[in-house]
Amino acid sequence: MSDRLPYAADAEVSLKSEELEVLRSQYKKEEPFVSIQTKFNYAWGLIKSNVRQDQLLGVRYLTEIFRDAPERRRECLYYLALGHYKLGNYVEARRYNDLLMDREPNNLQARSLNKLIDDRVAKDGLVGLAIIGGGVAAVGILLGSLLRRRR
Q1: What is the mean pLDDT of each run of 10 residues along the chain (151 residues)?
Q2: pTM of the shown model
Q3: What is the Rg, in whole angstroms, of the alpha carbon atoms belonging to the chain?
């Protein structure tokens, strides 16, 4: 079953606007009683978007499916993790991905996403340390110049 999910790196490729529009049109056509499959398909397309508002909406729809359709929870876990990853919510991304990995320890997509999350957290951590280090250096220079002026 895990073979049906794309590798996490593949999710960095957005749908063409026409493809997303097809999913949006189907969703709108079914309103107010949208099928779970249509909602899932649209949420998937929104997650793949490069537009933050689309990604937020995709995560919201997937969260609703996760809550309301227990039979689709396993399928939602990966895309919720992916959506949160793309939004920069790494704690949430890891939480959903860990839930999937607990159920399917050999899931290649979850492993791939786990590596992406780890890499991003490490990169962002290094950037954060560099910013903090730069700030400490600037304060040190400022204090040093103030102390020299007093002499």
Answers
A1: 56 85 98 97 94 96 96 93 94 95 92 90 64 57 66 61
A2: 0.76
A3: 21
